[in-house]
């Protein structure tokens, strides 16, 4: 039987050293994804697991207009934070729309950012064609039973979705992640953290082996800015998004002065709708503007038969979330 | 109607009810299955070297080294599944190709990944329309051809023709199917997730060439079955085979993904339905054809159209039942097989026609009510379908709806009401029950029936208590053991009728035996009395006319030096039905649904669901209601969520987890209202009718019909998903 080693880290430095020094090592935090992938589905090789669960990286603090969130803060803790509820409510909404209470009490914020795709072709070792697991082997999902898959940033190489809800508002907010590595500490813009699959879907983030997210810096929205997260899925609860959208708007005298919009359920990475934001800012907060923004948001989608509907659904999701956030009674 | 708590509830809620996977035997080892990753072809080589060398591994069994097993026998529910270790052929993805036995489960699972299987692959047949697919016509001889449907269709005032599609669904009982097999020289004992111990015993005995008396199948508790436990699946045989090979008890627990490919599913089906109707809303012709998927080299009962011929009064009915053999895991029975699918088409079509002829959907069903059984012309043994419809319409507030589709809006939501009628089939199989009175004055019932979560323990105890005049806690029910008197499967909604009927016969025989015992007993106040003169209450038998004249069971047994007094009862309702002069009826029901649809986002929510059910005499309102509620939730799943996604190219199940295969969560299920109507059935000896399956039937049509009423869109394929509604 192939075994794995387990070490409980006592401080950040030694944890980083342990993982950095062993190409087969990985971090274990909440374990809600990693244990499945390694032990149940066996799609990642077994190796040294460095449990960072008890490191002092848990907690939430306000630092001016930035919320500093320890990487080991649980999803449930962040969702319940009063500052989050007041200043960036769509972060709380996104968290509570994800997983289940039991999972949210285990899963960590750092882990959520680095969660692996739910693509069933990636997660089944009986499938041999998976560029994400075996570079160059192809993609069985493209011709397969795709539905929970990406249409933006996707290609025939890979349509695996980044399924995080939390990452959608964080992407809209231009959050940052603080990272500890063997070479020291660095800060990475959220926009730079996740890497589009291109021809190397196996490369998912800019993190070097051994680097560990220690903190997430969440900019708070200016007072008076409203935000909302809308998640569209088949059942009411406990399902990943078919489409989702996180929006923040400031509106003065009927004109949009600030717009943040990011999308979930559609991208190979958490997706910022920059073009749509451009359409929104300076425009009147009307249905016509929202529709134009939605059109601008979904450009050059890559679809397969099972995901074609997401193009229209994503647009409607955007329109709806903008209508709701703008205060239009719906 | 009583509403007694389940007698086994304390055991279940305290975690002490022993399910098959809870048993552990001394010296037990563990087996893990290796499955084919291709859907068609043959195994060109299996390399087990690495697996055999792995820690703890005791054996790796493949088709190359497996001791041969005899072919399984035919069952009353059709041919047994194909045993995959017979040869090197692969007929579906997920087919069992090797079983690894090791000291621990983890060792076996790890070694299973080291088994190297090479395949010579063939292009699998995966599509119902693939011209290469073998077609089975009328495989179950259940097609009906009454009158002249073609002629009636061509002359009908109003005609209708549409096609309906239903996705394959997986039974997915929560309890992972488990087999724990142990041999004691040539005697085999198996704990198994069977809904039918007698069938499993026969299959194992035949496969291993043993007398049935040397095989014992135990299933005191089952974590759900929904039809998955009605066949002798290969994992059961393989566990027994592995135990024989290693000479130790072997436990084999299927994984959740393996549950999707190893224990059957509701076959994908497509139906073409043609109806002819008068302008006054009377059916004049029904022609229903179904095409359902079937496993390659397999047989499986899925007569989708079986419920239609007796659902309504219609002079011209033709049904056609086709099955197409594909390289998919063998379908099986899934709760209300055939009925759930056929009803969706028929009740959707009637809804469509109600709008065309301008007759209220409830009224349309009432106009076509079958006063007598449509084919035999015999009076029904019971039929409260009319009452189901009327009570349901009243209780639901059906008349309050604006009949025009798309006419009710609440913010982003369109609101709609829909309903469906339900006629379930009648099924009966022979059953025996053994009833004893012990010296303590308490009773024991024994039968090889199972309680698959439906409440068999409870209603059996209630029935014995009532007939023998005891309290329920004075009755011990022993079931789930093939050594006990043979009982039919928990399936087909036939067990409650058969078992309570057999208990009634056994109770009469037992009381007769008691009277015989005291016939010449000078000290017995009951000496010389006949059965029809006595009744039982408070643990004693006494005269009907003079309750003071009688005595306690315990006193009789004590005086006669008996440890127990036992009698068997046997009932064969199917045989009795032939000249009963009535048409034995199954359950009837009406379902009423209220839905909300957000058309922009394609969201569908069920906000109210009412079931009005004629289940004959209701022995226990609580367990009966639970059956309807559970079935209704499953019906919501069928209507809105469930679909086994077979990969188009490889036949692999692409969503074989509970994260990916959607079933309703609590938030998807509104409060479910259940009402029982009707009275005791005239043919069923206890007045009882089966209720285990009818709860599913009609829910998809009621929801689809409500979607139409809400939106003006007719959805004829299940599940109804966002992409269809937006």
UniProtKB/TrEMBL annotation, chain A:
Q: SMART domains per the record?
A: CO_deh_flav_C (SM01092)
* SUPFAM superfamilies registered for this protein in UniProt: CO dehydrogenase flavoprotein C-terminal domain-like, FAD-binding/transporter-associated domain-like
Keywords on record: Oxidoreductase
UniProt source species: Lentzea waywayandensis
Stated name of the protein:
Xanthine dehydrogenase YagS FAD-binding subunit
Pfam families cross-referenced by the UniProt entry: CO_deh_flav_C (PF03450), FAD_binding_5 (PF00941)
Q: Which stretches make up the FAD-binding PCMH-type domain?
A: 1-223
Xref: InterPro entries: CO_DH_flav_C (IPR005107), CO_DH_flav_C_dom_sf (IPR036683), Diverse_Substr_Oxidored (IPR051312), FAD-bd_PCMH (IPR016166), FAD-bd_PCMH-like_sf (IPR036318), FAD-bd_PCMH_sub1 (IPR016167), FAD-bd_PCMH_sub2 (IPR016169), Mopterin_DH_FAD-bd (IPR002346)
UniProtKB/TrEMBL annotation, chain B:
InterPro entries recorded for this chain? Ald_Oxase/Xan_DH_a/b, Ald_Oxase/Xan_DH_a/b_sf, Ald_Oxase/xanthine_DH-like, AldOxase/xan_DH_MoCoBD1, AldOxase/xan_DH_MoCoBD2, AldOxase/xan_DH_Mopterin-bd_sf
Keyword Transport applies: no
Q: Does the keyword Oxidoreductase apply?
A: yes
Q: Which organism is it from?
A: Lentzea waywayandensis
High-level lineage: Bacteria, Bacillati, Actinomycetota, Actinomycetes, Pseudonocardiales
PANTHER family found in the cross-reference section: ALDEHYDE OXIDASE 1-RELATED (PTHR11908:SF132), XANTHINE DEHYDROGENASE (PTHR11908)
| Xref: SMART domains | Ald_Xan_dh_C (SM01008)
Q: Which Pfam families match?
A: Ald_Xan_dh_C, MoCoBD_1, MoCoBD_2
Q: Which UniProt keywords apply?
A: Molybdenum, Oxidoreductase
Q: Which SUPFAM superfamilies match?
A: CO dehydrogenase molybdoprotein N-domain-like, Molybdenum cofactor-binding domain
Q: What is the protein name given in its UniProt record?
A: Xanthine dehydrogenase, molybdenum binding subunit apoprotein
Q: Which GO terms describe its molecular function?
A: iron ion binding; oxidoreductase activity
**Where is each Aldehyde oxidase/xanthine dehydrogenase a/b hammerhead domain found?**
14-123
What Gene3D superfamilies does the annotation carry? Aldehyde oxidase/xanthine dehydrogenase, a/b hammerhead, Aldehyde oxidase/xanthine dehydrogenase, molybdopterin binding domain
